[in-house]
């Protein structure tokens, strides 16, 4: 058999065997920054929070109710006045990795810079390129409505000292490339731990209990744990079950995930490549080591 | 006024019989977390749809032998369930342990369109299944699943047990 025929056969059979292979979805073109930026945009699930229901794409305004008050997500369209169109690359990197606005003020951690700080410079710049290609929308950011003392933005400097680990992602040399890819997605752009980990009294993720689940998740949801601890139902699922749950939302009992995870599947994990989803699963299988 | 409960009226046997009956009774009532009436009915309907999806899902995942006729049968059950959904959500039927969100009645048109869509996509799955093309079946199954998760995203708040 000629190598090319063999290759074609391998591809064909993997198409038949793999649970879902999307006909209309190609793996991202890494050479095209905007296209790869779109893929990174999906990894981050940016539109879940930055597009309000019935609002214009990425113009913000979505209300997020938390124990500290109501946050309103900002406009991240490239409008120069009300969006982020005027930002330099460094402004963008600083926002994503330090949680600081171009004027130096602190962002609140409802914006998960705590995870995005693990993203590579390459990915962040590709994301910025992609955002710059979107339709600008003129829409002023609505101020947050927070209770005292959380309405004091300057306090976030203290918050960061206690809760923010700004070290970038460092691959674990003892682990496979696939595992490291999964670790990067889960802890960086995918920001899974933001909802799937418990938080302390001032809203910082308890890093020693990362991905252990959160009884008091967003909108009062109980967010299940993702570690392979026995009490987490995902520990009983096969790799196919896990893949299905993040690709199309189906759990092994035939139920379909909804709530906040429904948005994640719709805007993020459902749009990722099969390889990346498998990397996420490989990492979750062994995330505590 | 004080009511004294006279235990002598009950023999031990009668009490244990009552206990057993009580256990059986609560066992029945408390399936679906003690749901009653229309809430119980719709939870049962959803469970049936879930069971249908589970059977098809197992085949698509390769966990069960692939049988396109079984898939068509399950798709038909889901398609038949569609028109019952809106009837099982009368105004403000939110009593516990319902997981339904009030948004259902605020956005009734969207909600009811989703139940139509469920039947449409299930119908298509039935047709595709009869053709027997595994890849097409898988794609259509995912489309059907999207309706499920779309509705669960906007209109259900899952109570983890």
From TrEMBL, chain A:
Q: Does the record bear Metal-binding in its keywords?
A: yes
**Gene Ontology molecular function, alphabetical:** electron transfer activity; heme binding; iron ion binding; oxidoreductase activity, acting on CH-OH group of donors
**Record-annotated Cytochrome c domain positions:** 32-288
* Protein name per UniProt: Cytochrome c
Q: Can you cite an annotated GO cellular component?
A: plasma membrane
Q: Which compartments is it annotated to reside in?
A: Cell membrane
The organism named in the record is Sedimenticola selenatireducens
- Which UniProt keywords are listed? Cell membrane, Heme, Iron, Membrane, Metal-binding, Repeat, Signal
- The protein's predominant localisation is membrane
TrEMBL record, chain B:
Molecular-function GO terms, alphabetical:
electron transfer activity; heme binding; iron ion binding
- Write down the species: Sedimenticola selenatireducens
GO annotation, biological process: electron transport chain
Query: At the top level of its lineage, which domain of life is listed?
Result: Bacteria
What the entry lists under InterPro entries is as follows: Cyt_c/b562, Cyt_c_II
| Entry protein name | Cytochrome c
SUPFAM superfamilies linked: Cytochromes
Give start-end ranges for the coiled-coil region(s).
none
């Amino acid at each position: 058999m000629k190598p090319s025929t063999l290759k074609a056969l391998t591809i064909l059979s993997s198409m038949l065997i793999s649970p879902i292979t999307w006909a209309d979805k190609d793996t991202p073109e890494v050479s095209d920054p905007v296209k790869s930026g779109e893929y990174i945009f999906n990894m981050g699930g940016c539109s879940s929070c930055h597009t309000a229901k019935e609002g214009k794409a990425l113009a913000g305004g979505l209300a997020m109710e938390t124990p500290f008050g109501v946050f309103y997500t900002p406009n991240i369209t490239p409008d120069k006045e009300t969006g982020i169109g005027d930002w330099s690359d460094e402004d963008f990197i600083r926002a994503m990795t330090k949680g600081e606005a171009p004027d130096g003020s602190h962002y609140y951690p409802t914006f998960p810079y705590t995870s995005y700080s693990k993203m590579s410079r390459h990915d962040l710049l590709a994301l910025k390129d992609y955002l710059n290609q979107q339709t600008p929308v003129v829409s002023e950011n609505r101020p947050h409505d927070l209770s005292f003392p959380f309405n004091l933005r300057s306090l976030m400097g203290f918050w960061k000292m206690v809760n923010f680990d700004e070290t970038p992602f460092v691959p674990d040399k003892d682990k496979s490339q696939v595992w490291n890819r999964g670790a990067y997605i889960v802890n960086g752009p995918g920001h899974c731990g933001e909802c799937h980990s418990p938080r302390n009294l001032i809203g910082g993720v308890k890093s020693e209990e990362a991905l252990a689940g959160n009884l008091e998740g967003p909108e009062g949801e109980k967010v299940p744990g993702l570690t392979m601890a026995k009490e987490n139902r995902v520990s009983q699922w096969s790799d196919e079950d896990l893949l299905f749950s993040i690709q199309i939302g189906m759990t092994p009992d035939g139920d379909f995930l909804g709530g906040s995870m429904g948005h994640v599947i719709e805007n993020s994990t459902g749009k990722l490549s099969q390889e990346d989803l498998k990397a996420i699963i490989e990492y979750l299988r062994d995330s505590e080591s | 006024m004080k009511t004294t409960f006279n235990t002598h009226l009950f023999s031990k046997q009668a009490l244990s019989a009552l206990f057993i009956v009580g256990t059986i009774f609560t066992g029945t009532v408390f399936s679906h977390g003690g749901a009653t009436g229309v809430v119980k009915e719709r939870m049962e309907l959803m469970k049936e749809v879930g069971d249908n999806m589970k059977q098809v899902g197992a085949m698509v995942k390769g966990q069960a032998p692939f049988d396109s006729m079984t898939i068509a049968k399950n798709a038909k059950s889901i398609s038949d369930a569609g028109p019952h959904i809106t009837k099982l959500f009368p105004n403000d039927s939110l009593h516990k342990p319902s997981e339904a969100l009030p948004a259902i009645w605020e956005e009734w048109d969207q909600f009811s369109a989703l139940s139509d869509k469920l039947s449409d996509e299930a119908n298509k799955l039935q047709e595709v299944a009869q053709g027997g093309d595994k890849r097409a079946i898988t794609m259509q199954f995912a489309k059907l699943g999207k309706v499920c998760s779309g509705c669960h995203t906007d209109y259900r708040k899952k109570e983890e047990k």
